[in-house]
Amino acid sequence: MRSVHAGRLLFLFFACFTLAVSGLAHEPEAEIKKLSFKHTTLQNGLEIYSIEDHSSPTVAVQVWYHVGSKDDPDRRSGFAHLFEHMMFKGNEHLTPEAFEKLTENVGGENNAFTAPDVTVYNEVVPSNYLEPILWAEAERMSSLALNDANFNSERDVVKEEYRQRILANPYGEFSLAIDQKSFAAHPYKRPSIGNIAELDAAQLPEIKAFHSTFYRPDNATLIVVGDFKASDLETWTKKYFGPITRPTAKIPRVTVAEPPRKEDRHEVLFSAKAPLPAFAVTHLAPSIRSEDEAALDLADEILSGGQSSRLYQSLVYEQQVAQRVSFSADLREDLGLLTFHVIVASGKSLPEAEKALDDQIEKVLKNGVSEAELDKAKNRFLTGKLMERETNNGKASALGEAAVIYRDPNHINTDLAKYQAVTANQIKEVLNKYIADKKKVLIEYLPEAKKEAAKPEEAEKP
């Protein structure tokens, strides 16, 4: 898994984002210093993980709530994302601008993100401001100003975000359609950003019920990394988080299983905004905790990690049938998705681009990857992980991901070795395991002008 921050969002692909991290091939495997962390659990169920690091006078605080877009109520997509915004509206002790004052006014920063499996809030501040940040996080966990005014204002903010990120983006609706068309039953098909019609239909009592159901200490993990004393952290967490009541009701979990695909499916969507045809090919993939995760992530890097990658070199540079091409191994908590995405080059046809992609897929399934490609992919991953660990917030993110998503906090100290141990033959094996002779979903996204040439049953607007 690259990072839950990105969530492997397709918006990044269609916004021309390219990650370029350099590394030297054929270097000996680096010995990675292990991170020493402490773990404690309060009586109300709040999990606390911490790493002391006095190298700079700063501290990072993250609160991971084990609730994401997959937990949105039926016909209410976007609730988890809406709450990402609502959590900044304060309560009787916190003004709506409190987190900005507690962070930015002292030279720090704060942010939040919603993913399919989690919602995360984070702050980085000078270490002498740790106590007020812990107080503020406890305040918004225990009580929130859930009233009509705040609900309506933040709902409008989310709707405007939807308009900008989805409706104003020529391929925004395509990015949402990929999950919606690829998952038959699992709520991963719901868009994290939400749906305007369903947000408009939401009522305040539903919002309050969502908060009381998921925003509770026994569904949260607190991560603190940086310049602090363990004794102070223990005192403050007990003081501010300890009194929060643990609800007696069980936390509802998604139990829907995605059925195996029995046949290939072909979906055709039309858009008045898309300047060029695009298409995606998806295959179901395992959970992020699968033993195949490292090999799939490295396959992701080899196939589409930058302009020197296989797919870019073949489809964009050599054959010039694609304007952009990408492959993502998006492994999530319950299951994942392997997705090839292509925007067809101007003057080229959809069949040409689809055949070029099929040929490259067949080639890698048959012949595998080279040692040089694998070395490069490993170095990019290793460099990225090491760069992440250079900051307190990066360490906090890695530890939170390990504790909540992987359900193993020590994963932070074992994951790199798994990547280093992957062989070229394993890359070939996992790609064949999840792609060869497996049922696929082909999603074509065509300019409106091509609608007349489509079969009546294929004509669908996103």
How would you concisely characterize the structure shown here?
The chain is an alpha+beta fold and 462 residues long. It has 16 helices and eleven strands. It has two domains: 36-240, Metalloenzyme, LuxS/M16 peptidase-like (Cytochrome Bc1 Complex, Chain A, domain 1), CATH 3.30.830.10; 265-458, Cytochrome Bc1 Complex, Chain A, domain 1 (2-Layer Sandwich).
Give the topology, please:
Layout: H1 10-14, E1 38-41, E2 47-52, E3 58-65, H2 79-86, H3 98-103, E4 109-114, E5 119-126, H4 130-142, H5 148-167, H6 172-182, H7 196-201, H8 204-214, E6 220-226, H9 230-240, E7 265-271, E8 278-285, H10 293-304, H11 310-318, E9 322-331, E10 336-344, H12 350-367, H13 371-388, H14 392-405, H15 411-421, H16 424-434, E11 441-447
Parallel strand pairs: 2-6, 7-11
Antiparallel strand pairs: 1-2, 3-5, 3-6, 4-5, 8-10, 8-11, 9-10
Helix pairs in contact: 2-5, 4-9, 10-13, 10-16, 11-12, 12-16
How would you characterize the overall build of this protein?
With about 450 residues, the chain is of the alpha+beta class. The chain folds into 2 domains: about 35-240, Metalloenzyme, LuxS/M16 peptidase-like (Cytochrome Bc1 Complex, Chain A, domain 1), CATH 3.30.830.10; about 265-460, Metalloenzyme, LuxS/M16 peptidase-like (Cytochrome Bc1 Complex, Chain A, domain 1), CATH 3.30.830.10. Helix content is about 40%, strand content about 15%. The protein has 16 helices and 11 strands. It has helices at about 10-15, 80-85, 100-105, 130-140, 150-165, 170-180, 195-200, 205-215, 230-240, 295-305, 310-320, 350-365, 370-390, 390-405, 410-420, 425-435; strands at about 40, 45-50, 60-65, 110-115, 120-125, 220-225, 265-270, 280-285, 320-330, 335-345, 440-445. The strands form 2 sheets. It has a 6-stranded mixed β-sheet, sandwiched between helices. Strands 7-11-8-10-9 form a 5-stranded mixed β-sheet. Strand 4 and strand 5 (about 120-125) form a beta hairpin. Helix 2 (about 80-85) packs across helix 5 and helix 10 (about 295-305) packs across helix 16. The longest helix has 20 residues, at about 150-165. The radius of gyration is 23 Å and the shape is globular. The two termini are about 30 Å apart.
